[in-house]
Specification:
Elements lengths: L4 E10 L9 E9 L4 E4 L6 H8 L11 E4 L2 E2 L8 E3 L16 H7 L6 H11 L12 H13 L5 E3 L7 H10 L17 E6 L2 E8 L18 H21 L17 H7 L5
Parallel strand pairs: 3-8, 6-7
Antiparallel strand pairs: 1-2, 1-4, 4-5, 8-9
Pfam families: ABC_tran
GO molecular function: ATP binding; ATP hydrolysis activity
Keywords: ATP-binding, Nucleotide-binding
Length: 275
């Protein structure tokens, strides 16, 4: 019998390059089977990096780390049934070419999953006669959702767009594990919520909704909405970052101490690369 966790990660530290601070620092994560987990965190918290690693999209040194999905090592024994819906998909030149949506979906096996494909086409309001190079990024994202979900799956990561209540119901009935960035309107969707900051989990996946026995009850009232929880966590993330910036961390935003010439010729001469 397999583990009770569909996702199991321990001792995971990851750097994008050897000379930078870790994007993930000693991550330990356990997500139970059958859950729908929402990970909350500000930009740069490490959410996307973690999800890419779980999907086998980003190779890491596994020395000392254990990264398992469906009881299988994501690098040495990649598990089937894992769907990764990352935002970079819509920028891929292949999916921005002059190809009709119906032909595109058939080319990736849509005809083998006609019932699921057709249900998703209706929910997502996709026109099979669209040409991929002529549609908007939002419409291309809908095609991606249909593409990613029409094949039965066990684990879905990095689900950024849930466009209608019908799609939520479809995912809720069909899902094992999800991670998302959108909270408004999702109060009844997740079974667990988690909070990441600067590459670590401040709150590991905790059962949702909050009950009187929940690990979250010390922070929030049982009647708190998911939106309120996410908003409070994100505000705390911002306050923490501002405090770190006061203590020497590189600051974001405008450089107010820089002197910008008011004379246009002086300004443009500074950025003249023709010589």
């Amino acid at each position: 019998m397999g583990s009770a966790d569909i996702v199991s990660v321990s001792n995971l530290t990851y750097r994008h390059s050897p000379d930078v601070e870790p994007s993930l620092l000693d991550v330990n994560l356990h997500i139970p089977r059958g859950s729908r987990t929402i990970i909350v965190g500000a930009n740069g918290a490490g959410k996307s990096t973690l999800l890419q690693i779980l999907a086998g999209k980003r190779l890491v040194s596994t020395e000392g780390a254990h990264i398992f999905v469906k009881d299988r090592d994501v690098f040495r024994d990649s598990p089937p049934g894992v769907t990764f819906l990352g935002t970079e998909w819509a920028m891929n030149p292949v999916v921005r070419g002059d190809i009709v949506v119906s032909a595109f979906l058939d080319s990736v096996g849509g005809y083998r999953h006609k019932e699921r494909r057709d249900r998703l086409l209706d929910i997502l309001d996709v026109d099979l006669d669209w040409h991929m190079h002529n549609i908007s990024d939002g419409e291309r994202r809908r095609v991606q959702l249909c593409f990613g979900l029409m094949v039965p799956w066990d684990v879905t990561v990095d689900l950024d767009v849930l466009v209608r209540d019908d799609l939520l119901n479809f995912l809720k009935a069909d899902s094992e594990t999800h991670a998302t960035h959108i909270f408004d309107g999702l109060n009844n969707f997740p079974t667990h919520v988690a909070h990441m900051r600067l590459g670590s989990f401040l709150t590991p996946p905790a059962p949702w909704p909050i009950t009187s026995t929940s690990d979250l009850v010390s922070q929030f009232a049982p009647s708190t909405t998911l939106y309120s929880v996410a908003l409070q966590w994100l505000k705390e993330d911002r306050d923490d970052r501002e405090e770190l910036e006061k203590n020497g961390r590189k600051a974001r935003g405008a450089r107010r101490n820089e002197t910008v010439p008011s004379d246009s010729e002086t300004f443009y001469r500074k950025y003249d690369y023709s010589h």
